[in-house]
Write a structure and sequence with these properties.
The protein is α/β, with parallel strands linked by helices and 330 residues long. Helices cover 30% and strands 25% of the residues. Helix 4 packs across helix 5 and helix 6 runs parallel beside helix 7. It binds iron/sulfur cluster.
């Protein structure tokens, strides 16, 4: 069990999300893309777990799998004490209000033919019995909460800037008073100048409504700012998970070391000590990951055992988990 003094709102155990590959005239299953290949972590109530890794590592699929937007291949997901990993989609409806998602591209995720009011109201129409007047009031409150002028409720998303559209998406995600929100690259499509505003808004809302976040991003500097703990993903697996300060100061896993070495160090004294690690080679295909450790084809510290035996993901130091043979118990 992953110990932590706080209560876990979300528990994920050995979750796999494999997408079958069909080939030939008969469309026989000939393999699988192992987008998520056995991930385990807890997200504590009120915390922000950052999930980082290069594009294609499976982090967005992991976020969607945790919300059960997919039927997962295997594993367990517990949400607020209820196991939802194997619950049929038809029975997940009751759980949907408590778990929501903020998408990367507000442009693509908002229906251009609906007014802002209708977009934010839609979850209320689907999941509540509020009267029309109560819904109008709730929508206005939500617009206030995310810093949108309620006088613009009848406008269409196209009339808003990228940052404002993301605020609409956040208001919609908040409509049903969720406990848990997966933020999937919520600032990646926004101008740099407004990214910080949206992140600050997410932080304010977290405090105000007691939200728990899974914050998926390839922007390590932003994750360093917002996350309580950070998980690093590589080729469908979590290779390291630790408190933010610990991970950025002393990463254990060679991939985490390389990834974090690219982040500009704000402290000039530390900046001189950190050397950029450039990885050789390409990321292998998730449909054909290497035997043993999935990082063995690129790891600067690879050993013979790494090419044969998959390293166990375990607590190497207090509250610091890693999957690497360098830290095998002797
Ligand atoms: Fe590198 Fe081996 Fe550790 Fe994998 S197990 S990260 S190949 S040292």
């Amino acid at each position: 069990m992953l110990d932590n003094p706080k209560k876990a709102l979300v528990s994920v155990r050995d979750v796999k999300m494999h997408f079958p590959i069909h080939t030939g005239v008969l469309r026989r299953k000939t393999g699988a893309v192992k987008a998520v290949d056995g991930i385990t972590f807890d997200i504590m109530e009120g915390e922000t777990l950052g999930l980082v890794g290069e594009s294609g590592c499976g982090k967005s699929t992991a976020g969607r799998a945790v919300l059960r937007l997919y039927d997962i291949t295997s594993g367990e997901i517990t949400m607020d004490g209820i196991e939802i990993g194997s619950t049929p989609q038809s029975q997940l409806r009751e759980m949907r209000p408590m778990m929501q998602m903020v998408f990367q591209d507000p442009q693509a995720s908002l229906n251009p033919r609906m007014t802002v009011e209708a977009i934010i109201r839609e979850p209320l129409d689907e999941h509540t019995t509020l009267t029309a007047q109560e819904k109008r009031e709730k929508v206005a409150e939500l617009m206030d909460a995310v810093g949108l002028n309620r006088a613009f409720a009848k406008r269409y998303p196209q009339a808003f800037s990228g940052g404002q559209r993301q605020r609409i998406g956040i208001a919609r995600a908040l409509a049903l008073n969720p406990k848990f929100i997966v933020c999937d690259e919520p600032i990646a499509a926004l101008d740099v100048s407004i990214q910080a505003q949206v992140v600050n808004l997410l932080e304010d809302l977290q405090e105000k409504f007691g939200l728990t976040y899974l914050f998926i991003s390839h922007d390590l500097s932003m994750v360093r700012h917002i996350a309580t703990r950070v998980a690093v993903m590589y080729l469908g697996k979590i290779v390291e998970l630790a408190e933010r300060e610990t991970l950025f100061a002393e990463p254990l896993h060679p991939y985490a070391k390389a990834l974090l070495s690219a982040v500009p160090e704000p402290d000039p004294a530390l900046a001189r000590k950190t050397e950029r690690i450039i990885l050789q080679g390409d990321v292998p295909s998730p449909s054909n990951p290497p035997k043993g450790c999935n990082f063995c084809t690129r790891c600067p510290e690879v050993m013979d055992i790494c090419r044969e035996v998959e390293p166990e993901y375990r607590e190497v130091k207090p509250r610091q988990f890693a999957a690497c043979h360098l830290y095998n118990e002797t």
